[in-house]
Amino acid sequence: MRDLDSLRATRAKSVHIQVGISDTLVRMPTPLPSSRLAWYALGRFWNVGGEVFDAGYFAHLELNSEGEMFVPNQPVGPASAHFTFFSEPFSLSRVQTGPLSISLDSVGSFSLFYQRHPGSDFTDPTSFAQGQCIARFRRPFTVVTEQVGDIKLATFSAELVESMPFEHCGQTHDLKDVLPYGVTQWGFGTGSTNENEATFAGSAVAVGRTELLPR
């Protein structure tokens, strides 16, 4: 009888431990499923001395939880955006011109920033590189940009090189928990007569496996 009671107690303890582990796992951040929306980005390009770079802000950035993208009660735009990006300079090569213009962007990287007190402005591109750097992504291959008239289209994949935890809306976040393998982004761009407006929009989805990206 004692052996039966001991067995029951052991089983009950085992179930309690398994439930506790299961509860812990449920609360842990999980990567986004492959092809799940990762972000919407709005930005501009600058050409300085033959080198190109881009900067801008995120209208949405998936954090696996609710979190404000913009300062409440302020106009939505770069000046109120908590999350911004800034790229390292890269070179651009023209392949052909004409009705269909094609250019190649060299391999490059870009960083994401969290601005607790936003204040970015497209008239000052370095304002998008303020605050806490929370991640760095690398484009491991050349990007082809197609242009017809004023309309530009481009697609690229970028791997997550490093990320840093940050606090936002009372919670701790880390992009390696939701985008460990990086993103693939489709971009649509055009010209603008207003220097404080975005000239391209990018929609990115999560990459499923790191082996999809060459090194």
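The above is record 1. Record 2 follows with the same two-line structure.
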Amino acid sequence: MIYNKPLKYKDICENLGIERLSGSKQQTQLRQLHKIYKFEKNQNGYYTFYKKYNDVEKLEIQNKIFKNCGLNCRNKALKDNPNFKINKEDMHKSGIYKIECGNLIYIGKTKDFYKRYTEHKRKLKNKTLYYDTSELLLNNGTFEILELENNKKKRNILETKWIKRYRENKNYICVNSNNINYKEYKLIKINLNDYNYVIDLLRKNNIKYE
């Protein structure tokens, strides 16, 4: 490629050995080149190429493109799924969620709320989701955040806490109790000097730990 010199579109194609296109296909081709080369077009229709991006710069450009695309996707997703009651700032965050329909409720944990929501939807189509949860979604059940949490181990503990809370609430029927065998997690702190002793003690008593 010839750098720092005004080139016609046909010259670019000849230098790069690519097909000459027209209309929207040419615009698409130039957008693809923008991911590889830094260049600009002047008022006379000539293109000046300045450099070819290195791998780090290419990654930064791709991330920027994906981020902008994601914004449009999030807006469309929220518009197309009115029962997904999570705003676009939080929809890809991690934590505990509920699917609620009347007095029926399902509690779950996830590292991506919207991804988990779409998994529920896909399973619905394939009829492989737990029956009670399917009924919640089919009857306009809402998908909402109960608590945000990035740490996986803490999510396990929080899920147990929320399931227990709704099981004990007489105003709700928690469908987890019928379909899901959940583990009860407890978070304990130990001194570093006692680590080996505690692990040995847990193993002797057949207590699982993470």
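The chain has two domains: 6-53, 82-210.
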